[in-house]
Amino acid sequence: MAYLPNLIFFTLVVCSLGLFTRNLKRIIRNINLGKDIDRNDSPSLRMKNMFRVAFGQTKMVSRPIAGILHLIVYIGFVFINIELLEIVLDGLTGKHRLFAPYLGSFYNFLIAMFEVFALLVLIAVFFFWTRRNVLKIKRFWKDEMKGWPKQDADYILYFELVLMILFLSMNSTDSLLQDLGATNYIKAGSFPVSQFLTPLFDSFELETLIFLERTFWWLHITGIFIFLNYLYYSKHLHILLAFPNTYFANLEIKGKFKVNPQIKTEVQLMLDPQEVIPEASPTTPDKFGVSDVFDLSWVQLMNSYSCTECGRCSSECPANITGKKLSPRAVMMKTRDRLEEVGSNINKNKGHFVPDGKQLLNDYISPEELWACTSCNACVEACPIEIDPLSIIMDMRQYLTLEQSAAPSELNSMMANVENNGAPWPFSNQDRLQWANEE
Amino acid sequence: MKLNVPTLAQLSAEGKKASVVFWVGCAGSFDDRAKKITKAFVKILNQTNTSYAVLGIEETCTGDPAKRAGNEFLFQMQAMQNISTLDKYEVTKIVTTCPHCFNTLKNEYPELGGNYQVIHHTQFLKKLIKEGALSIEGGVYKGKRITYHDPCYLGRANKIYEAPRDLIKKLDAELVEMKSCKSKGLCCGAGGAQMFKDAESGNKEINIERTEQALETQPDIIAAACPFCNTMMTDGVKNKDQEGKTEVMDIAELIANANDL
Fold first, then answer.
1. If you average pLDDT over residues A361-378, what whole number do you get?
2. What is the fold of B8-127?
């Protein structure tokens, strides 16, 4: 019986890590449904980019208020995870404050720091919540945020709020028990923040205090395990995926849109059938451009899982600002929603995708959205973790134009002009130098 | 007055070469407003005795609007044609007044076999000044308020923010920035082949939004460095009935005017 709590705790750890691993594997499987793209070049440059953008959060602070608040929660999250290690080991071994005897006064410093961070996180969460729900900052209230995305964002803030309060309450009751000399509650830690909570608890009997401390401890760690598994169902995966997402980001200058290599071969064949070297003439491509998630690259699919729905992209998108249907954030969300739909289809059908008569184009993203893009790269520039909605938009346009001849009619005229006259307008190319003769 | 503009074909017939090719672009060749930018730049090239030539009727669309409209085939066909022309004349260096041509030639031609040093005209003008070939005195623009609109394909796409601004400062003008500028510059609405179609329905035109940002700075001149931005901003200024007060000018035009060319 004495080992019952350890056993329960062990089961909790195994179950939550097991569930998390299962879901993580599904995400990786879904990402791998994408087409191959080589992003293994320049590893040192990629590492640098990841450290700068993901660890260093350099793009977050371009909006200073949100950037600094986010930095606080981020640093708090990283540091408090150190404490989490001790809590998990305590739970497994049945000890209390396992690290304290080994670390001495440094332990007190650490606990004090965790408390300060917990308070800072609470303050940041309060401001985040206020920005969403009281100030109602526009980008949090766009069409694509209605319903679950809005609730999801709030739930995450409530999670963080509750976890921090539990952490501080746990410390507060612990410090009271230490002062009372309760068995197992060794004198350890320093409590600069939670000391202010002691008036809430100091009238309780020893037994009640122990009960409260244990309850806070269990709720806190259980809450963390629930949060860990909530990630998969939420927009919050960026805390993990921001790192690979920035590592595998497009390092080319933004103006360079990728050249379709299959089309290159076709064009070479058309221009000079003899010239094409045999190894470069591969199988005829089955499809040009993108109409479903299977046609996207795995990086684009990873982008969709990494999106936190912050909406910085859409708030800088000229089309979105002027009321068009296009929202780069919605492009990412819809890509992820379709990918999740494909994923559950595979789960249900024993590892195989059974065609469901749906696709990303039309069922999720409309041509009207795609044609509203000015390809200005504002969304790509704005994304704090280097997601590239523009590449998806351009790939889908390629499908519309090349596979369906479904470009807007004015663009078809423009392209006919380019093809026939070498200019997007109906002028004769023979007049190209006329300007030199005019005044 | 007819401008003296050498073509590569003429030079090559005379056994001569040009050290740089001026890529005029479709807008610069055919659009009435953009032609003025072309002429202003040519006047500067002539005044500075720059060794240059144009392709004339051998130039054809780079394929940029086709690519952005999803027609990768047409883009690559155009690119291959242009590359074969450029390579025929052994061209190594290209200057252009259009950021879209600039971006495509510089970034998207190499993978198709076209490797050239490509320079935007604002960079080129800055270099002419640095080398002492060109000097600017503020002249008519001295003390004027000038705001600069970053073309997406020059700014964000290619990180060229300073060359155009340095040139404006050389005019002894007061450079005033809009609330969205440089890497956060708002698009004029023409990119991605939007120039050639009506906008999707919304509550405002993009060029009006951008023009409003520009007019907030109360400028005498809105400087642009792209023929398409120029058109969009000019339309915006007209729409706001500010034609008498605010002019939209390319940086090449500002310099040509300041030097009485």
1. 98
2. Rossmann fold (3.40.50)
Contacts of A383 in chain B (CB under 8 A): none
Q: What is the DSSP string of A175-239?
A: HHHHHHT-TT--S----TTGGGGHHHHTTS-HHHHHHHHHHHHHHHHHHHHHHHHHGGGSSTTHH
| Structure tokens belonging to residue A74 | 């981020």
Q: What is the pTM of this model?
A: 0.95
Question: For chain A, what are the domain ranges?
Answer: 4-31+63-236, 261-422
| Percent of chain A scoring above 90 in pLDDT | 89
CB proximity A399 to B under 8 Å = yes
Where along chain B do its domains lie?
Answer: 8-127, 136-258
Q: What is the mean pLDDT of residues B32-39?
A: 97
Q: Which member of A373, A422, A437 has the closest CB to residue B192?
A: A373
> CATH for B136-258?
3.40.50
CATH entry 3.40.350.10 includes domain A261-422: no
Is B136-258 in the same CATH topology as B8-127? yes
Q: Which residue in A has a C-alpha nearest to residue B53's C-alpha? A: A433
Three-state secondary-structure class, residue B119: strand
Judged by CB atoms closer than 8 Å, whether chains meet at B56 and A427 is answered as: no
The answer, yes or no, to whether ipTM is higher than 0.85 is: yes
| Nearest C-alpha neighbor of B108 from the set A167, A417, A394 | A394
Q: Which ranges constitute the DSSP H helices of B173-250? A: 206-216, 227-239
Asked if the Cβ–Cβ distance from A377 to B74 is below 8 Å, we say no
